[in-house]
From TrEMBL:
Classification of source organism: Eukaryota, Viridiplantae, Streptophyta, Embryophyta, Tracheophyta
Reactions listed under catalytic activity: ATP + H2O = ADP + phosphate + H(+)
Keyword annotations of the record: ATP-binding, Helicase, Hydrolase, Nucleotide-binding
EC number assigned by the record: 3.6.4.13
GO molecular function, one term: RNA helicase activity
Name this protein carries in UniProt: RNA helicase
Residue ranges constituting the Helicase ATP-binding domain according to the UniProt record: 59-224
Main EC class the enzyme belongs to: hydrolase
Length: 698
């Protein structure tokens, strides 16, 4: 495939002048932390970062304002440096902890290990991190703690005012993830009760003024007489200039029909024609990234003249530690690293040495439709703001080039300026239950940074009521509601676990829950579809994917948890190890909730009933007289199909329940299980009465 490029007119220096109203704060360069006897290379590196100039300024603002908003280009040092400055200034003295949240788990791990390295300490001691199912902190020792915003929300259940923390830095706020927005709303509440708490909201591009007015409570608060230490209520805004080099933008002349193929061709074109320098490719998810890595690796082997010049690496959440280290390791001399990434490399992680960026123009995004009650993970167009960020990644070390796999006309005329906050395009079931667990009853009246659609809220309340998690007064039920809220999983999975315990299959539901918590236990390799399908058949159960998972898990244990066995069966060994870890955690949680572990010894009917108890809202019926394989959801008559990765693909049982939906050309159900429709009315009588299911002949 030939690519036609033309240089675009836009040269993003990424100094966002659209931002206009940002106050510029400047202070003399600090020299307080530098040694008189010369700097170590780490000190030198730290002091070379743009944010270093603002060290004293930041500390001053944090001291004097309840909230400080910091905007600075990716790579300027916000995430790795600011927590260290706070620590150096004594904010972690007296047993207090500095927290820094990230929307993504992988970023939490990567940043924490970097900061531990810079401070010369062992990860898990002074510097630690917590992500779901993994706690690498030491109470009383850890001073700087990186964690996902979701984990911090969970910590509020035990400590509603987050009293351990002196400063909470909500990082990557521009991403507007669901958990970030909930967190911002709750932190605003906490601030009223804790004048000693300081917040930092930091991001690459934020509408700083919107955020500032959200946190500005100065009009409403009355200063207590004689209270000298109270910080200023109006937020401070600080902008850190970037130091990016020019990036030349190239567009496609004609739209690409296959962005994956276009990305691969573009990388090869760059490799062939451009001077040395690493390439960062933005694709959307594990599937297309793995495919692209495979295609590029094969191509690289075929490139006789330049053989092994390319080092191709994937980057997505769920990578093993070893794979993560490869991403950050320096490129071997004379080689060119190609990193194929999700939008995690857009602003969350800084990769050194990138000179070329290939931007597919897409990312995987959640979309929820309250009418159909379906949440999709969709490959959707990114915004202009994202496209600019992606391009900026090419200008870190010297001037670079960005190849956009779309036309200039598309960029100018069709690409939306900003993304929509996740809050406004998500299923709110988890969000509602978390707020309820924190005692927030008036959810519709909650002070959100961006209001969720009322229909989505109503749907969430309805589902939670049917699940028996909320009562008629929309309060958490006891014990089910409170127990479900305790489990750090999707409420539907938690309900499945609770029901599994009642039905006598807690062992099995915990295994299923652990497997559903990892991305996929199968390895996808292009070109060996037949072998992969055959391997899957060895485990396939007529009842569906959940039961198949149990067979895989059993086989894995019987093999002595062997990596060879996984390799032979196209099973992802790393994912299976993760499953074991998560399962251990879930066992501990089950123990805490008083759930005794019990196996149903192969009685798949009880397991499927437990799945139904959690996921009844996702029930579908095969349309007998229409196109083959077409199902309709019971709730809203949406047309859906079984995903080809499911063991029930082409089997098409009459009644099924799905775990999730992915949309490509059609809406596909992933992880599907066959059920008996009578279980639906059993599991959720009110929910299905309106649907007239009782009258349906089955
Ligand atoms: O948060 P922000 O994007 O402002 O920057 P950062 O993540 O604090 O990164 C600051 C610098 O640290 C980057 O320019 C990288 O050079 C370096 N860094 C690194 O080398 N390895 C990491 N794992 C993280 C950061
Ligand atoms: Mg950062």
């Amino acid at each position: 495939m030939t690519q036609f490029w033309k240089p675009g007119s836009e040269k993003p220096r990424l100094v966002d002048d659209e931002e206009g109203g940002i106050l510029f704060f400047s202070t003399p360069t600090s020299s307080s932390s530098s040694s008189r006897f010369g700097y170590s290379s780490i000190d030198k590196q730290r002091q070379g970062l743009p944010v270093y100039k603002y060290r004293n300024g930041i500390l001053y603002l944090v001291e004097n304002h309840a909230t400080t908003i910091i905007v600075g280009e990716t790579g300027s040092g916000k995430t790795t440096q600011i927590p260290q400055y706070l620590n150096e200034a004594g904010w972690a003295e007296g047993g207090r902890v500095i927290a820094c949240t990230q929307p993504r788990r992988l970023a939490v791990q990567a940043v924490a290990s970097r900061v531990a390295e810079e401070m010369g300490v062992k990860l898990g001691e002074e510097v630690g991190y917590i992500i779901r199912f993994e706690d690498l902190t030491k109470p009383g020792v850890t001073k700087i703690k990186f964690l996902t915003d979701g984990v911090l929300l969970r910590e509020m259940m035990d400590d509603p005012l987050l009293t351990n923390y002196s400063v909470i830095m909500v990082d990557e706020a521009h991403e507007r993830s669901l958990a970030t927005d909930i967190l911002l709303g709750l932190l605003k509440k906490i601030q009223r009760r804790r004048p000693d708490l300081r917040l930092i909201i930091s991001s690459a591009t934020i509408e700083a003024r919107t955020m500032s007015s959200f946190f500005d409570t100065s009009g409403r608060m009355h200063k207590k007489a004689g209270d000298e230490i109270e910080p200023k209520k109006e937020p401070a805004i600080l902008s850190v200039e970037g130091r990016g080099f020019n990036v030349q933008i190239h567009y496609l002349e004609e739209p690409a029909s296959d962005y994956l193929q276009a990305a691969v061709s573009t990388v090869l074109l760059i490799h062939d024609q451009e001077p040395i320098g690493d390439i960062l490719v933005f694709l959307t998810g594990q599937d297309d990234i793995d495919s692209a890595v495979q295609l590029l690796t094969e191509e690289a082997q075929n490139l006789k003249k330049n053989s092994s010049g390319l080092v191709v690496l994937p980057l997505y959440s769920g990578l093993s530690r070893g794979d993560q280290d490869l991403i950050f390791a320096p490129t071997p001399r004379g080689k060119r690293k190609v990193i194929v990434s999700t939008n995690i490399a857009e602003t969350s992680l800084t990769l050194e040495g990138i000179v070329y960026v290939v931007d597919s123009g897409f990312s995987k995004q959640r979309f929820y439709n309250p009418i159909s009650d379906i949440e999709n993970l969709v490959v959707a167009p990114i915004s202009k703001a994202s496209a600019r960020q992606r391009a900026g990644r090419a200008g870190r070390v010297r001037s670079g080039k960005c190849y956009r796999l779309y036309t200039e006309e598309y960029f100018v005329k069709e690409m939306p300026a900003e993304g929509i906050p996740e809050m406004q395009r998500s299923n709110l079931v988890s969000c509602v239950i978390q707020l309820k667990a924190l005692g927030i009853d008036n959810i519709l009246g909650f002070d959100w940074p961006a209001s969720p659609p009322p229909e989505a809220m109503v749907r969430a309340l309805e589902v939670l009521y049917s699940l028996g998690i909320l009562d008629e007064d929309a309060k958490l039920t006891s014990p089910i509601g409170f127990q479900v809220a305790e489990i750090p999983l999707d409420p539907m999975i938690s309900k499945m676990i609770m029901s599994g315990s009642l039905l006598g299959c807690s062992e099995e539901v915990i295994t299923v829950a652990a497997i559903l918590s990892v991305q996929s236990i199968w390895v996808a390799v292009r070109g060996v579809q037949k072998e992969m399908d055959e391997a899957k058949l060895r485990f396939a159960a007529a009842e569906g994917d959940h039961v198949t998972f149990l067979n895989v898990y059993k086989g894995f244990l019987q093999s002595g948890k062997s990596s060879q066995w996984c390799y032979k069966n196209f099973i992802n060994y790393h994912a299976m190890k993760k499953v074991l870890e998560i399962r251990e955690q879930l066992k501990r949680i089950a123990h805490r909730l008083g759930i005794a572990l019990k196996s149903c010894e192969g009685d798949t009917q009880v397991l499927r009933k437990a799945v139904t108890a959690g996921f009844f809202a996702n029930a579908c019926r095969l349309e007998a007289f229409s196109q083959a394989g077409m199902y309709k959801t019971i709730r809203s008559s949406q047309e859906v199909y079984i995903h080809p990765s499911s063991v029930l693909f082409r089997v098409n049982p009459k009644w099924v329940i799905f775990h999730s939906i992915v949309s490509t050309d059609r809406q596909y159900m992933r992880n599907v299980i066959a059920i008996d429709p009578s279980w639906l009315t059993e599991a959720a009588p009110q929910f299905y009465q309106q649907q007239g299911l009782n009258k349906v002949a089955y």
